[in-house]
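Worked example 3. Consider a protein that binds 2-acetamido-2-deoxy-beta-D-glucopyranose.
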Amino acid sequence: MQGSLPFRNTLLVAFLSIVTSLVAVTSLPSTRVVYYLHTSPAAWNEASKTCSEYGAVLITLPNFPTTNNSVTYVNVNSWNSQMNTLQNGFWTGLYRNSSGNLRWQKCTEYNASVVPPEVTLTPGTCYVSDTSFRLSSQLCNTPRPYICQRDDGQCWFQPYVDTMLEDPDTSTAHSDVTTTTDEGDCAKLCRSTVQQNRECWAFNFRGDNCTLLFADDNHKYALHKQSSYYRPQQDHTAYVKICTGGWVTTLKATATDLSPTPQDENCTVTTSSDWDDAVCYCECDQPPVILEAESLVMTIEEKVDKIVQELHVDPDNTSSTRRKKESAEDSRPSAQGIGYFGVAFLIAIFGGIFLMDLNIFVAHAANFWRYIKSKNTSDC
Ligand SMILES: *[C@@H]1O[C@H](CO)[C@@H](O)[C@H](O)[C@H]1NC(C)=O
Ligand SMILES: *[C@@H]1O[C@H](CO)[C@@H](O)[C@H](O)[C@H]1NC(C)=O
Ligand SMILES: *[C@@H]1O[C@H](CO)[C@@H](O)[C@H](O)[C@H]1NC(C)=O
Ligand SMILES: *[C@@H]1O[C@H](CO)[C@@H](O)[C@H](O)[C@H]1NC(C)=O
Ligand SMILES: *[C@@H]1O[C@H](CO)[C@@H](O)[C@H](O)[C@H]1NC(C)=O
Ligand SMILES: *[C@@H]1O[C@H](CO)[C@@H](O)[C@H](O)[C@H]1NC(C)=O
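Given these inputs, the predicted complex is written out as structure tokens:
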């Protein structure tokens, strides 16, 4: 399935020019945003601080249809529909700052025309949402469940073997055929292409044909798995783009902050929102590991303790000897995450020992080289 080198280079140039021309003029394609549903209620400032402890912010809806579709997908696929139980509302990242302006966390301006209007007007400067994302203001020190969101790399593609995706709705969908022998190249194209403000949300792959499907709706094909879009078709593989994921967590807020007003954000530092394509595209069809909030908030010391605990084997425990010959697969993302961390940790330690001995090794090697050389010259 490998293309010849010149061909791949041509493709890369074509690909880059498409990306630069399209990305420059239209909106940026989606990257992955993961959502954590916190079921332990907290005041707004406490909730905000808990999110920030693992690099997240309270959920923002500056582009309402996009967020609604992503969260709907996560609610069905990762939250076991637990969001539907939050009828009394959950905190969002919308607040009124001390100058009286509404804004989302992450320093995003509030645009009333893209968000559903408020249902009630209760005094308060922090905003809860109901399960349909209707917002209402509340006193910030009211304990509420909340949702944090975190930017987490690139989208991935769920493969459907012997399946072809077809979207009869040509007014909103559009497809584009490219020739490539590599599914990975096709995935890269789909991940980075926007056409007429429509993003690529899936692609069909067969032989050397890569057909991108563009649609208005965020996660259109991922949200409608039982629909007529999916048609059985031998030798075709349909790949559906998924740019979200998440966990439910019972993590308790660590800080106590019952102040009735939200903490202003420091918006003088402008964060660049450049689209990050510096990622590894390998295994684009594997669901990426999404770490649980519990492991994200751990300090390095706690992670090391946990690894040591997991590595510790009681020699007297007969079950461990029983299990010696069989390996139990642990596919929990947290376990995998900890596993990767453990590997990195071991490499760091043994790599460090190796580096410390490197000068000795180099000295020996130099001696050995001199020895060989002297032997060779004497041979001549
Ligand atoms: C949010 O998305 C779901 C699923 O796509 C849809 O059924 C629902 O109507 C949307 N909500 C609003 C307020 O548009
Ligand atoms: C409040 O928000 C407005 C715009 O949304 C901004 O100009 C102003 O500086 C903010 N005030 C503070 C104290 O952050
Ligand atoms: C608010 O959103 C609408 C619809 O996307 C857009 O036309 C408008 O320019 C936005 N307003 C501001 C102030 O960004
Ligand atoms: C690829 O697409 C072209 C044009 O759509 C078609 O003629 C050709 O048969 C396709 N090849 C494969 C292997 O599907
Ligand atoms: C906001 O960030 C800037 C730049 O890092 C810093 O100079 C300023 O002191 C910060 N302001 C507050 C109120 O933290
Ligand atoms: C032996 O292993 C089992 C399961 O792995 C564990 O529940 C138990 O506590 C262990 N016993 C001792 C004495 O460590």
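Take a moment to read the result before moving on. The CA atoms of residues 317 and 323 lie 10 Å apart. Residues 298-313+331-380 form one domain.
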